[in-house]
Amino acid sequence: MTGVALSPAVLTAVGALPNCPLCVACSGGSDSVALVHLLHASSLRERLVIVHFDHRAGRKTSARDGEFVKNLAWQLALPCEIATRALEEKIPSGESGLRMLRLKFFRRCMARHGTPFLATAHQRDDALETLLLRLARGGNLEALTAPRTVQRFRDGSIHLRPLLHSSKADLVKFLKVNGWTWCEDETNGMPCHTRNRIRLQLIPLWRTFEPRRNWERSLLRSRKLLEEDQDALASWAEKIYGQSIVGNCLKIFSLRSEPPAIQRRVLHRYFTDRELTVGAATVDALLTAIAENRKLRLTLPRGRNCLLNGQLLSIDPPGVGQQFSNQRTVNADCAPAF
């Protein structure tokens, strides 16, 4: 059916490791059920493992969804792993907290089955909503182009989104034509989260501004162009990073002639390689000091400090930073740094 197909990029990525299973996240909703059926009809059928996590986050139908997913896996003769959050386990705040709980379980499943692959059912409408949401929050190129069809992490895991080029309407039509059922999340029609309000209120309003324009197509083109720019900048920054690392230090004089977009990405790589998350204030302070060619000492999470001496950026070992005095302090906040 037109508009519903597995991404060739995903098939290529999975085909590169032919002996690895493919964990497929299934909530029981229309998107993930369509993904399961499409994968089951493909050459990947023998490699599928269905995974489902019940947050117990207040939804009355969460137990029903788990039972549905279990029955779906049984009907398709696929292995299935289902977990339910323990009642005594604290629910993290917000959608991002629930997503972290879910991902933690998925990663355990991936480890048990010896695979780097996790397939999720993000579709075209999700990508458009994410673009609008992150524009409102001041996201950078990497944020604006998420989610990606194939996303590789430094720990070796690979997240796959085979349906990013299909719309939700096409997926629902695909299920109905084949007589397949799914579970409806009762919260999808409620303006209880920002994403839901974008879907239910903002997008319909936007369509009224220029009814003759296919604004979805225009947004998707913008997103594709942003992806190309992000990939080019990431490749450029990776090259500069390789030229700038000396042991545990970063050569600043190598960065000074590069544009701020490259400097930000190199700093991000430097901190993340050392398992440190810093906020926008920290990065902005470093960029200003680099531009002005002056020294700077900043506090980092977990009692660490970084020192910029004009030529090198270095990070002290845990605990050492506590001995410094008269240091300029910039807290690592929660805002996006890059």
Description:
By secondary structure, the protein is an alpha/beta fold. About 45% of the residues lie in helices and about 15% in strands. Among the domains are: about 10-125 and about 145-185, HUPs (Rossmann fold), CATH 3.40.50.620; about 245-325, Uridine Diphospho-n-acetylenolpyruvylglucosamine Reductase, domain 3 (2-Layer Sandwich), CATH 3.30.465. The strands form two sheets. A six-stranded mixed beta sheet has the order 3-2-1-4-6-5, with helices on both faces. A five-stranded antiparallel beta sheet has the order 7-8-11-10-9. Helix 2 (about 30-40) packs across helix 7 (about 170-175). The longest helix has 30 residues, at about 215-245. The radius of gyration is 23 Å and the shape is globular.
Key traits:
11 helices, six-stranded mixed β-sheet, disordered C terminus, alpha/beta, Rossmann fold, 338 residues, Uridine Diphospho-n-acetylenolpyruvylglucosamine Reductase, domain 3, single chain
